[in-house]
Structures are given as structure tokens and as C-alpha cells.
Amino acid sequence: MLYCDVKELAYNARSIRAFDVSRPAGEDMLKHFVECARLCPSAANLQPLKFKLCFEKSEVDALFPLTRWAGYLKDRRIPPEGEEPTDFIVICHDTSVSPISEYSTMDVGIVAQTINLAAVEKGFGCCMIGSFDKKATAELFSFPENLTPVLVLALGTPKESPIICSIGEDGSTKYFRDDAGLHFVPKRSMEDVLIK
Ligand SMILES: Cc1cc2nc3c(=O)[nH]c(=O)nc-3n(C[C@H](O)[C@H](O)[C@H](O)COP(=O)(O)O)c2cc1C
After folding, report:
1. How far are the Cα atoms of 2, 129, 188 from residue 170, in angstroms, in the given order?
2. Whose CA is nearest to atom 19 of ligand 1?
3. Ligand 1: which of 69, 105, 127 to mutate, most ligand atoms within 8 Å of CB?
4. pLDDT tens per residue across span 127-167
5. 85 within 8 A of 24, measured Cβ to Cβ
6. Are 48 and 107 in contact (CB under 8 A)?
7. From its phi and psi, is residue 96 left (phi > 0), alpha (psi between -120 and 50) or beta?
8. Low-confidence residues of the chain, pLDDT below 50?
């Protein structure tokens, strides 16, 4: 059986913070992403995560101001005006299934990266947003008590191509932009991450 190259997918699955608003993902594509997510491993196979799909412009426009972007880059508007995400998936923990726990937060990471990779495979891009107003998000969508928003996935067609680079001599892992606005993401080397 043929599989796509996971290393290549992972290499290209950078956090995207500028989008082509003329090419949204849309409802069917978001459902495809959730179809991938629902097949993920889950601690004790509890599967406590639920997904709110946002593809209607009114919902996307209402959620966007509740999200915080690129905390290291304070000198510019990110995403730039007119290049905002066109779609969102709000990952919620359903406490009627199980309490939020150390293990359930691992489930969140697994589904988030699965959706990120699925998005890249289909020509879309994603930015995971942990910094968002959870209370206002729950109010916006009138979530019942049992649904706690835990992570937002901003999605759309990428309008930027972040570049992986090695970590400089100062050892900083902070992402940065050059004068041309290119976004660089320092990653630790194989030597740095392998335990000897
Ligand atoms: C759990 C999690 C939460 C994140 N929250 C935010 C966020 O609130 N805002 C943002 O702009 N980026 C957020 N990011 C994206 C990270 O900044 C990004 O993954 C990191 O800079 C490395 O870049 P890369 O994803 O291109 O490898 C988040 C990433 C993860 C995994």
C-alpha cells in the first residue's frame, strides 16, 4: 500500500499566520479533518473531544478577535489585515465523557497535529491557537456546561511559507521574521534531541 511521506508532511506543516481569503477550506473539508481526528489514539479510548466547525463568515469573524497570534512578534499585525483564517475548528473537551486530565490534554495534541497534517496534505495550512478567550468562545457558540474549549485550530489556504532554521549561537528557540517579512522557525537538531 502507498502512503504519503510523513517526514515531508511534517516538514511542511508549519504554523500559518497569513491566509488567502479567496480559498476557504469549507464545511466538507473541515469534516474530512474531523474524520481524521476521530480515528486518533485516545487515552483509555475515552474519546472526550468534540469539534465545533466554523466556516460561516459570521462565525469566523466573531471568533477571530478572541484569538491571540505570534506572541513573540509585537511589531506588526499578525495575521495581516485581509489575510485572516477563513475557517476554524474549536476543539472542546466534553466533561460528560470524562474529566479534563493530564491524559486528555495529550489527546488534544494528537488530534491537533493530525488535523494539521491532514490540512497540509490537502493544500491548506493551520495554526494551533492555545491563547484565546475560552469563556467568550463558549458564550459565542452557546456551548453547554459540559463542553470546555481547549484549543482553536485556525485554517485556510496559506499565504506565507515559514522556513525551518537551526538554532543560533544564543540558543533561542523564538521564531523571528527578517526584513522581507519571511518567518523563520528555529528547530533543535537531531544531535540536540537524541538522548545519548
Ligand atoms: C499547543 C499549542 C498552542 C499554540 N498557541 C499559539 C497561539 O496561541 N498563537 C500563535 O500564534 N501560535 C500558537 N502556536 C504555534 C506555535 O507558536 C508554533 O507551533 C511554534 O512557533 C513553532 O512553529 P511551527 O508550528 O511552524 O513549527 C501554538 C502551538 C501549539 C502546539
Report:
1. 42, 27, 13
2. 15
3. 127
4. 999 999 999 999 999 999 999 999 999 999 999 999 999 99
5. no
6. yes
7. alpha
8. none
For residue 127, what are the β-bridge partners? 154
CA distance 158 to 155: 8
Determine the residue of 73, 128, 193 to mutate for testing ligand 1's pocket, defined as the one with the most ligand atoms within 8 A of the Cβ atom: 128
Ligand 1, pocket residues at CB < 6 Å = 14-15, 68-70, 127-131, 162, 175, 185
Quick check: pTM over 0.90?
A: yes
Classify the C-alpha dihedral 98-42-46-125 as positive or negative: positive
Whole-angstrom distance, CA of residue 99 vs CA of residue 151: 16
Residue of 104, 129, 172, 174 to mutate, ligand 1, most atoms within 8 A of C-beta: 129
